[in-house]
C-alpha cells in the first residue's frame, strides 16, 4: 500500500490505501468538528470562511482560519520534502516513514487534547490536525499519482460523477465498451474512498464521544501498524532483490 508507486500499483492496492487512510482521516475530521466546531481538512470551507471574515473586518477570526490553511499547506510541503529526500537516498519505504511520522505527531496531539487546558485545545488541535492531514494527503497523492485522495471527498465526488456519466455513455453505446473495465475500476475506487470517509467519520464521532482525545492515540496506533507493515514488506522485498542480484 505504501511501497509501490504510480503505475506499479494496482486496483486492489489503491482501494486498500483509500479504505484505510480515508477512514482514519474521516474519523479525525468529523471528531474535530464534533469536539471544537472546526474542520481540519476541508480547505475549501476554511478558505471561504476566511474570505467571509476578511470581508467583515473580523481580523482575529480571519487569522485563525488563515492559520488552518497555512498549516495544511505546510504539512503537504513537509511531507513532500521528506519523500523527495528519501527518494534521493533510495529509501524504498519513504512513504511509509512519512505516515509513521504522521502517527507519532498524531499521538502527541492526542496527548495535548487530553491534558491541555480548555483555552488551548482549539488553537493547538485544529491547526495540528490540519498539518497532519496535509502530510497524509501529500503522501497519498504522490504515491498514487493523484488517483487517490483520503483527507477530503470533494475531488472524489467530482470524479465519481464523471465516471458515472461515462458509464452511462458506455451503456448507451456512445463510448467504446473497451473502456468499461477501466471505468468500473475508477468507480469502485471513488465509492470506496467516499464510503470509508463517511464510515470513519461516524465511528470517529461515536468513539470521541466515548473516550475523547484517546481517539487520536488510537488512530495513531492504526497508522503505526500500517506504516510498520509497509516498512517490513519493503525491507523483505529489498533483501530478496539483493539476494537475486548477488547470485
UniProtKB/TrEMBL annotation:
Transmembrane region(s): 21-39, 59-82, 94-116, 122-140, 187-208, 214-231
Keywords: Membrane, Transmembrane, Transmembrane helix
InterPro entries tied to this protein: DUF1275 (IPR010699)
Protein name (Swiss-Prot/TrEMBL): YoaK family protein
Organism: Rhizobium calliandrae
Amino acid at each position: 500500500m505504501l511501497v509501490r508507486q504510480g503505475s506499479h500499483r494496482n486496483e486492489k492496492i489503491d482501494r486498500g490505501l483509500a479504505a484505510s487512510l480515508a477512514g482514519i482521516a474521516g474519523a479525525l475530521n468529523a471528531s474535530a468538528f464534533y469536539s471544537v466546531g472546526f474542520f481540519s481538512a476541508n480547505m475549501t470551507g476554511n478558505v471561504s470562511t476566511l474570505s467571509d471574515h476578511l470581508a467583515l473586518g473580523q481580523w482575529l477570526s480571519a487569522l485563525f482560519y488563515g492559520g488552518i490553511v497555512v498549516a495544511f499547506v505546510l504539512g503537504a510541503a513537509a511531507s513532500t520534502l521528506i519523500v523527495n529526500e528519501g527518494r534521493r537516498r533510495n529509501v524504498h519505504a519513504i512513504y511509509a516513514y512519512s505516515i509513521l511520522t504522521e502517527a507519532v505527531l498524531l499521538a502527541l496531539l492526542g496527548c495535548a487534547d487530553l491534558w491541555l487546558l480548555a483555552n488551548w485545545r482549539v488553537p493547538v488541535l485544529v491547526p495540528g490536525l490540519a498539518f497532519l492531514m496535509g502530510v497524509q494527503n501529500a503522501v497519498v497523492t504522490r504515491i498514487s499519482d493523484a488517483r487517490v485522495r483520503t483527507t477530503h471527498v470533494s475531488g472524489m465526488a467530482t470524479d465519481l460523477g464523471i465516471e458515472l456519466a461515462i458509464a452511462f455513455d458506455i451503456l448507451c453505446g456512445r463510448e467504446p465498451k473497451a473502456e468499461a473495465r477501466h471505468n468500473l475500476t475508477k468507480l469502485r475506487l471513488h465509492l470506496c474512498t467516499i464510503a470509508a470517509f463517511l464510515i470513519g467519520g461516524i465511528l470517529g464521532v461515536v468513539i470521541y464521544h466515548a473516550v475523547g482525545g484517546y481517539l487520536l492515540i488510537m488512530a495513531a496506533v492504526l497508522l503505526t501498524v500500517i506504516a510498520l507493515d509497509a516498512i517490513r514488506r519493503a525491507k523483505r522485498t529489498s533483501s530478496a532483490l539483493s539476494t537475486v542480484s548477488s547470485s
